[in-house]
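To: structure desk
From: M.T.
Subject: fold request, one chain
Message: Could you run this one when you get a chance? Sequence is below, nothing fancy, just the single chain.
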Amino acid sequence: MRLPRQTVQRLGFALLALAAAAVVVPILLIIAYILYQGASAINLEFLTGYPREGMRAGGILPAIVGTLLLTLGTGIVAVPVGVGAAIYLAEYARDTALTRAIRLAIINLAGIPSVVYGLFGLGLFVLFLHFGTSILAGSLTLAIMTLPVIISTSEEALRSVPLAFRTVSASLGGTRWQTIRRVVLPQALPGILTGVILGLERAAGETAPILFTVAAFFLPRLPRSLFDQTMALPYHLFVISTQVPGMPVRIQYGTALVLLIFVLSMNLTATLIRSYYRRRRQW
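Reply: Done. Structure tokens follow.
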């Protein structure tokens, strides 16, 4: 006996809702638990002070500043290179065996464990190029790690722009670069922003790459140059959770809450910008 179509449709919607709830509810519970445990640690001293007493007291300002600097450095290096590579692959490169191999390599690079990127950064930037354990070495390592995500998502965003836009621009006398810069890029900007923010969020939350290239165990001061070490929120959270005996639980969860707010604020900013440009999109 076959069920009526409406019954099957309702059953399918119910299963989809259950699957969504199975993903969303645990995430919300984790966020609520971190907020409950860490909210008591958040105050002005915690956000603007320096760690002391073996990181059992004081604040996490060096870790916050270090995370901001690493994320900014990653963006400065990865965004122009990643978007430029995506433009070349989507608009200029021909469909040959070489370009297909390049796309396959980019997809495979996105799945490499972050610890491998950390070892690569240690060998290339820290030892071979003599940058030492520094913000420069850490930013370059994180930039290489985020490039596959930025390139893949940006290329898909560029390819999603209808061909008619390019045809009309060419018929009006626009060169290929003028078409890309004035027509294609503005229309693809929401998707490009999504890829950029996804890559930078991953960079902001990674521990293994900065463990080998930049992160300091305990450094109660701010960095003075690109060749200085710095503390960072992911590594600081790992250290105080596993390496420091007698660490108050509220400081651990407070640090986790600050990192969570940092990542979520990036996501919210990207969502607002993406929504703004989607409303202006002409298709």
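Reply (cont.): The longest strand covers residues 51-52. Let me know if you need anything else for the meeting.
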